[in-house]
Every structure is written in C-alpha cells, then in structure tokens.
Amino acid sequence: MAGATQHITPTCTNFRSVARALTIVENNLAGAADLLKSLTFNIHTPVTGITGPPGAGKSTLVNAIINNLVQQGKKVAVLAIDPTSPFNFGSLLGDRIRMASHFNHPDVFIRSLATRGSLGGLSAKTIEMTDVLKASGFDHIIVETVGVGQSEVEIAGLADITFVMLVPEAGDEIQNIKSGLMEIADAFIINKADREGADLFINNLKKILQQSKENKVPIFKTVASKNEGIDAITDFILSNPKITNSRRELLLTQKIYNIIQQNKMAGIDKKKLQQDIAKALQEPYFNIYRFASNYIG
C-alpha cells in the first residue's frame, strides 16, 4: 500500500493529485510518512496566515485577496481551518460558499480542515498539509484560522506573514488579548471599518501598539464585502520580505519532537500496557516509575 504513494506527485497543475496527497496526510493513511519524506519543498513559497475571531469576515477577505493574486497570474492554495468537530461540516461548508467564486478556478485550490479539538486553532496536521502545498508548485499559500490570543503563536510560526483581523465591535476585548496579539501580529486588519466606532477603535489600537513599542506594526482598514482596502493588503503581502524570527524554530522543534515521540511509541500496545498494569498493581510494592522504566529501556 505504501508503494502506491510513489505515484502521487502533488502538483498545482493537477488538483486531484494535490487533494489525494492531502487526504493521505490528513488521515494518516498507509504511506503518509513515505509521501511526506518524498516531498521536495519550495522554501521560497510564501505562506500568509490570517487569524481572528468568528464573524470578523476572514473568508470574505481571503476571497478578495485571492481575486487580486489571481489577477496577477498567481496560483493560490488556501487551507481554511475551522474549530468545529470533524463530524459537523456546517461551518466548513460556509467557508467554501463564501469562496464559491474561486472554487472551480483553475488557479485556485481550496481545502477545508477541522481542528479536531486542537488548541490554538491549528490542527496537528496543518503543518504537514501546508508542506504538501509548498511542494505542489503554488505561488502563494493562505492559511485561514479562527482564534486570537497566546495560543495562536502556532500560526505565526507557520506563516511568513501573520495578519490578525479584528472588527470595531471587539471594543475592550483587545485589552484582554493584547499580549497574544502583540506576539503574533505582523499586521492588523480592521475589517468592517465603515461601521460606527471604527476610527476610535483603530486609535485605541495604535495607543496600545505604542505602549508596547510595537508601533511599527501596520494597521489596514478594510470593508471586505465591498472590496475596499484589499489592494493595500495584497501589495503588502507581495512586497514584504519573509520575516525571520524564532517562532518558526519553536514550532518546528515541537513538530520534530512529536514525530520522534510517535516513532518511539510505535511499538507500544496500549491495551497490553493496561493489562500489564492491572497485573503489576497486584504486587504489594508497585512503583509506577520502575514499571515505566521497563518500557523505556
């Protein structure tokens, strides 16, 4: 079965091959590890992360950005990550509906992905699926995820540029989440900027940025539903060099640690472990640490 993956070469000229490779990786099907090891990445493929609370208009914004990139001849891949259960596809379908105008475009590939309970808005498979897309020849990759705060550092490690998207209604909430925002935002997007209180909200955000000495972080005003302010964001994405920081190192360190851990645990049968523990508990001087050392070797 593993050998079958040798014939899967994901490429942006064949979306079926990309979709199949993503399915194998996402569901950890037979041959997934060999497929990942066979990938040849284009390290220069830019990845843009867009995060923010539900209802901020992220999918509408992404749709507008896609339109601008496609008009400039770019081939674009999108991972739309939703924090729902994998058994409830309502919101996932909603992402696709909002991007419907590009869903069948020959230069646009869109994939929805549930977080499956992952904290921080990223599935454990997001890194691997992004790597598949980076090896498929796309000119640009966009990762859209829900959530703001300290736990969203993952998206900042995965993306070259991370946008934090807010709406004027966020109000005082920004005071509570500012530590996380300051850490991950390379730029802010204030969407629905035509609403009452938008300018006051932006001024308050600027004051917070100045207090935290992060006043160089740009703030973009958009009305995504009317395609307003999208050109400035697209220009920033295309002109901004990759941002080098330790967040990617932290993310990849944890990822590699998990890979090593999974391989080290591959020979452990949890059911047999439970049976062995049940037997060991009958001993009068049972010691959990001595017991574990028998498995560690």
Helical stretch tally: 13
Segments where pLDDT lies below 50 for 5+ residues?
Answer: 1-6, 85-92
Helix content: 40-55%
Tally the beta strands.
7
- What is the distance, rounded to the nearest whole angstrom, between the alpha carbons of the first and last residues? 32 Å
Structural commentary:
The chain has 297 residues and is of the alpha/beta class. The chain has helices spanning 15-26, 32-38, 58-71, 90-98, 100-103, 126-134, 153-158, 173-184, 198-211, 230-239, 246-264, 270-280, 288-296, and strands spanning 47-52, 76-82, 108-114, 140-146, 161-166, 187-190, 219-221. It has a 7-stranded parallel beta sheet with strand order 3-2-4-1-5-6-7, sandwiched between helices. Strand 6, helix 9 (198-211) and strand 7 (219-221) form a beta-alpha-beta unit. The longest helix is centred in the C-terminal third of the chain and has 19 residues, at 246-264. The chain is globular and about 70 Å long.
